[in-house]
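Trying the structure run again after the queue cleared.
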Amino acid sequence: MPRIHPVWPLVLAVLTALVCGCQKTDRGSNEAPVAAAGAGAASPAVASNGSLPEASRRIIRTAELSVETDAPGVAASTLAALADSKGGFVVSSETGRSIEADGAEAVSTTVVFRVPVGAFDDALTVVRGLGTRVSNEKVTGQDVTEEYVDLEARVRAQRAVEEQYLAVLKEAKSIPDILAVEQKLGEARTEIERAEGRRRLLENETRLSTITVHLAKHIAAVEASAPGFGRSVREAGHDSVVVAVAIVNGAIRLVGVLLPVGVLVVVPVLLLVKLWRRRRSLALASRPQS
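Done. Tokens:
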């Protein structure tokens, strides 16, 4: 019978451990997770009914508001100071300018900032009080607790497999065996890096909340419906020019229509009348005088 290399039973044991680790990963969402490798912090405890307590849940919170204010620039500076005071930071700030129909310049500013999740509600209260009116508000929360716990379990399982592959690598003697084990070891480390990268992203998203604020200048109803004297004069002058141009265009079109009629109808009629008068004059002249 062919001789079995002593390395392959160890590889078989690693594969068996990998299968068992995957099964433990499936059960990880219903059990208390142990601290993630390298994290240095204990994972949240699981309640007696199998679910995580509310304080230990990981939720991504975001908000988007449209605020009307008389001074968008001042409000943007207030938001930057708010983010700094809450331990957050401004992600981006963008200002746009447009020209209204009456020639006035409209300014709008969009500020995106992040604050710790514990200061989320307080920051929303400050944002709502920045302007005269909040025209639009949207607040969302995404629960990613189950995904986070599953990632922790996957990292633990893959690290256990990595340690077993390292043990097998020490026992490998031939180059083909070493290459085969190193390939499996690289796959395990790739899975660890992918899971840890996603876990770090979820930690960042759940630790800091994102708030987007659209700031626009408030336009009162009286200003929008009652234009000023200068605007009324400009509109009246524009209307006068439009009417004058329309009259000239109408006269030109009328002449263009009547000219062929005059050539084809009026001119022949005038010639016939003139010819009739000449003949009548000749007839009267040829009569003998009594």
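The CA atoms of residues 270 and 276 lie 10 Å apart. Worth checking whether this holds up in the mutant runs.
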